[in-house]
Amino acid sequence: MSAALLQHPFMSQHAVSESNAQAMIRAMLAFELALADVQQARGAVPEGVSQQLRQVLEAHDFDAEAIAAGIATGGNAAIPFVKQARGALPADIKRYFHQGATSQDVVDSALMLLVKPRLSAVDQLLLRCRAAAIELMRDHEQTVMVGRTLMQQALPITFGVKVAHWAIGLEQARRRLAAVELPVQFGGAVGVHSGWDEQGLAFMDALAERLELDTAVLPWHTDRQPIHALGTAIDAVAGAAEKLALDVALLTQTEIGEVAEPSAPGMGESSSMPHKRNPVRCALIRGAARQVHGQASVLLNAVAQPLERGLGEWHAEWAPLIDSLLLLEGALEQTVVLLEGLEVNPAAMQRNLAVTGGGIMAEPVSRILTPALGVDAAKRISAEAAESARLSGKSYADVLASHPEVLGKVDHQALLQATDPAGYVGTSREQVRRAMEWLMGNAA
């Protein structure tokens, strides 16, 4: 499989370039050097050794291919990495490198260091989504459109309230992801800092501070709640973006045409049909999100790990965790472009409101007719008049007013009001204002 053709197009290209093998090596090295620093500060490493380790290893050219090959025998990247690092060190300081750590400490902490900038990038993209959504909500608070249930026309809403629901979903997921902790991992061979007594927890806390990661209550070698929380929060953002993309894609259908993706040279073109403008951004968002959902299932199924070290479950987490973030960042890059440049067509929304000849307003019309005609007759006449209006091209109100069972029994002005979609949008406008207040109140 060619990742460049089949996988990377759904990902953030910038994120892919920042999450390669060398980045993982740098993250593992950052953990090891920070560990030496905190141990030296507490007398467990002789003065000056930490600086010697840093000087040698930061200048060392690690062989990523050899480390990758070593995973087949060691089971993780830390083992061949530590071997290479020790091989580069002078004999008198080798023993101070990786002191008290186990390979899982290195890999888990390195992954947290890789994840951190990706979460920051995701947060910035979500803030841009929020700003663009607020602008759309302002512009279309009064724009009436068809509300659809089970893929069929139901009752009127406003486009503003539709965007509000997209924005709320994205913001709720953003806040959930922002609250996730990225804890340092340091427990040694079986997670109890063997050989270090009470110093072990002090090392762990100092290491978290040094690496600017969260402090763990205890080492979490087989307590995978941090990964579960992170994976599900990533998936929640992907789900919110996918919902938006699905709605937009449905509204771009030729027969509906209520919105369109931002135009760009070659964007959305077909290999065989020159007339097409495919919702490619929506497809990329949904394609990435579907993959994130799959990656999340791997993380969820790896939560229960045996005894003091996972046997395959831990190993299964690594790629899905990083890939899901790269996919999410890619999806959000497309979502930002979509929201910031979305083309909205209010005229098409008005046209679609009239497709049923006014039948979309049969419910309020029935309510107006019921006091004079009774429930059964009101429902029947409202439906008959809608079909007649659709076939004849006359207005729904006029057809109703001339219906023999309605004539003279219901005020024509009341019928005009009852058949106006703009007068039957419920709390759409109030919901937009309430959503904007909530979103802007969380603008910090």
UniProtKB/TrEMBL annotation:
<comment type="similarity">
    <text>Belongs to the class-II fumarase/aspartase family.</text>
</comment>
<dbReference type="InterPro" id="IPR000362">
    <property type="entry name" value="Fumarate_lyase_fam"/>
</dbReference>
<dbReference type="InterPro" id="IPR019468">
    <property type="entry name" value="AdenyloSucc_lyase_C"/>
</dbReference>
<dbReference type="InterPro" id="IPR022761">
    <property type="entry name" value="Fumarate_lyase_N"/>
</dbReference>
<keyword id="KW-0456">Lyase</keyword>
<dbReference type="Pfam" id="PF00206">
    <property type="entry name" value="Lyase_1"/>
</dbReference>
<dbReference type="InterPro" id="IPR008948">
    <property type="entry name" value="L-Aspartase-like"/>
</dbReference>
<protein>
    <submittedName>
        <fullName>Adenylosuccinate lyase family protein</fullName>
    </submittedName>
</protein>
<feature type="domain" description="Adenylosuccinate lyase C-terminal">
    <location>
        <begin position="357"/>
        <end position="436"/>
    </location>
</feature>
<dbReference type="GO" id="GO:0016829">
    <property type="term" value="F:lyase activity"/>
</dbReference>
